[in-house]
DNA sequence: TTCTATTTGGTAAATTTTACACAATAAAGT
DNA sequence: ACTTTATTGTGTAAAATTTACCAAATAGAA
């Protein structure tokens, strides 16, 4: 929080560059070792975690804003981003539970509670998918930390962000059946067992280890490479990669996956 | 437009009760005689049509606001309503093409262009389904007319509403495959041929006249009644109705329909 | 009674999904 | 060099679902 000046300026003058009353919150998902992960921002002053979020510049489209907000936490641009729902319950933020005096003092700003930030805000929910291993989470201007959490080990979140995660996850799961977006969660080369595990974890159900990869190959979505992975004292599995052409088409058209 | 006072008050003081910078626009669909219809608001001053829309009261949830806005045009509440996408391109409204002088004069308000309404606005898109025959379209506070249009005969719309219709229709079609929402477009009692026609028009593709209804019956979604409809010089078809229990469950769970 | 247009029961063929047996193989231990 | 262990991956048969379409039923008009 060394850039206090920048923060003060955002709180006092932000409304000139950002649209008030609207924010974006992003559920950024990653996958590692049979676990679905999500990126959460920690706020010491609020004593809790919430989804990474931000405001929309007056010059940006929603997608551009979401991209920027996601990039601020992951340092990666052009992640797979999907707008899934907009949240606008008038009581989604419990203003009376926030200690404005404390904030004013901490931020060095006289009347924080009168700022443009402190008013009813509707939030556009996006979810993003990324290869877990490529991300080094970064805390932002307001937040104190940013870290990966296993999806079934996240603490109760601030505001209505528990509901946001639930809805994002639901959309992700539905879309996973029709769009081969597992590609976004895997490295460029992977084994059949690995992609099988991604689908089992994300969908939360068993898929036949032989039939499932067979279908992916049959649809032409993935192609066998002439390389194997060494996995110790077992038969070395072949590596596969997504077929870009078929994959791109399936992303647009949709294909039923089991 | 006899309630000029009400309108003036909305333009001048509306921001006290409504959230600025955010609106809701609704694509209200109906079906009649092999045609999908959509409700459009006409604006003489703008010389064009757009989707019925409105602002969100500070006490309302988004769904409540959408319900109110839809009810203002249809006089019907509790229609099937789905939020499908939020639109926020900075240039979705071409401000420079609007003649504020003319508006000010017409509305009897000195500086219309300085009102809270004239600023970047993000719009939450909803689509609604309703039995065409139950609706008597009503013009609203700002609009001059409100009428049904065949979906393939709508004029170019104002703002980004062409894109909104396109996206709403896409969502409707996708959802029609998994949720038996044709129920919302049909009267309580209908023949197999009628429900078959609804699906063919909405999906824009041929469905086998025998297999399709057979599947609906097999899934238990619709049930045969002990009544027939007189259709002139042909064999009288049986009437069917949706099975409320199976139908409600399918709305939540989803079922694949061909 | 016959004709026309439409509804509907039934059934066979084609396709897709599901289940599962077993052969292949990599490396470590004996 | 052979055995053991754990995992990969080919093949195939059974089950279920989807698709195609024949032919009978039927209502009113000619």
Describe what is shown at a glance.
Chain A is built from 7 helices and 10 strands. The first copy, chain A, has 258 residues and is of the alpha+beta class. Chain A has 2 domains: 174 residues, Nucleoside Triphosphate Pyrophosphohydrolase, CATH 3.90.79.10; 74 residues, Winged helix-like DNA-binding domain superfamily/Winged helix DNA-binding domain (Arc Repressor Mutant, subunit A, Orthogonal Bundle).
Task: Write the CATH homologous superfamily of the largest domain in chain A.
Answer: Nucleoside Triphosphate Pyrophosphohydrolase
Spans where pLDDT lies below 50 across 5 or more residues of chain A = none
Rg from Cα of chain A: 21 Å
* CATH architecture call of the largest domain in chain A: Alpha-Beta Complex
Question: What is the CATH domain class of the largest domain in chain A?
Answer: Alpha Beta
Major β-sheet of chain A, in short? 7 strands, mixed
Average pLDDT for all residues of chain A: 93
> What is the name of the CATH topology of the largest domain in chain A?
Nucleoside Triphosphate Pyrophosphohydrolase
Strand and helix map with partners:
2 copies of one chain form a homodimer.
Chain A: H1 4-13, E1 18-32, E2 35-43, E3 48-50, E4 53-57, H2 62-74, E5 80-87, H3 100-107, E6 122-130, E7 145-150, H4 161-178, E8 190-191, H5 192-203, H6 211-218, E9 222-228, E10 238-242, H7 244-253
Parallel strand pairs in A: 1-6
Antiparallel strand pairs in A: 1-2, 1-4, 2-3, 2-7, 5-6, 8-10, 9-10
The first copy, chain A, binds a DNA duplex (30 and 30 nucleotides) through helix 6.
